[in-house]
Each structure stands twice: as structure tokens, then as C-alpha cells.
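seq as requested:
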Amino acid sequence: EFMTGRFPEIRMLTLYNVEIDKPDYNTTRLVNWLVSMPKLQFLKFAKVDSRVYKVLVEDPRDHRNLDTDAPEEQPDAMEEELDAMEEQTDAPEEQSDYARPIICPDCRVLQFQLQDFTTIMNVVATRAHFGVPFRKIYIPVEHARLVPPDLIQRLYELSNKATYLIAMGRITEEERIIYEEMEAAQNLVHVSQ
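C-alpha cells:
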């Protein structure tokens, strides 16, 4: 809860060794935290509890005002973001027959390692089904060797043939662009001060 709404400009999020304790209680908190990062484009996972990345296919409307410990009103920014998601779902372009709001709709790049591959496949397939597929998926070569080739092929198909094997620790093109834009923005801040 403390972090919800504090990082609205985040474009890349990396999670390592994250678990959810008391999933019924904490899933809503995780959903609301991710909803509060509307600009998130790139998500990286390693050794993360499958319940963490399963929230990427949750309907954020199911998690509004469900927190019994929180004040009656959610933060305005959170409501605005949820409303924007609903409006985006109503837009006619690129609609799936099953379109509905989904968490982090602009998150189109996924990188994972040491994860339950079946659950990853389900998340990727569900997001594609709801019209917000990952456009690129990166898997470290070292971990891809542990996955049956037919599952790698299915992931390749779900990502519109944009699944890539990369060397462990290598920076992707998307990461490099985000880093460069962050550096440029930081330089602008320093120059203007």
C-alpha cells in the first residue's frame, strides 16, 4: 500500500524473489500497485511466486475498494487510471471479442527466468485473448534449455513470432532505450535548475 501511487512514471519494473503471503488479502494490493504505474512497458521476472504475475490478467475493476483497512475512498489517481482503462476498452481499435480492462495494458515486453513456464504461458495467452498481448518476450538462453521445445514454439506463436533468446544479463534494446530516455530527462532537469 505504501508504494501504490508513488511511481506513476515507471516504465520498466524488475521483480526478483518475490512471494505473496496471504494471497486473498494481498492480491488487491498488488493489483492496485500495478494499476498505479500506467506507463509500465517492460516487465522482468525471476524466481517470482506465480501468483505475482497472474495478476497481470486480473480485471482491475474487481479490486476497487476491496481493502477493508483503507479509507473509504481510493486515491483520485487510482480511480482516474481505472476509468482510463475502461475507456480504452471501449475504444474500437484493436479489440478482441473478449476485451475488458486489464492490468498494465501498455506493458508489451516481458522477460523472465526461472519461472513456472506453464503459468507464464497461461498469462501470455490470456493477455493475447483480451487484446493486450506481449509484443516481445525474452528468455535467457540458459533457462530456455530447461523448457520443452513445443512450449517455446507456442510462446513464439502467442507473441506474434517475437520471442527471443538472450544471453543472461544482456541489456535488451527496449531497456537501452528506456535508460537513454531516463538519462536525457535527468540531464534536462540538471540543465534547467
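The longest strand covers residues 12-16.
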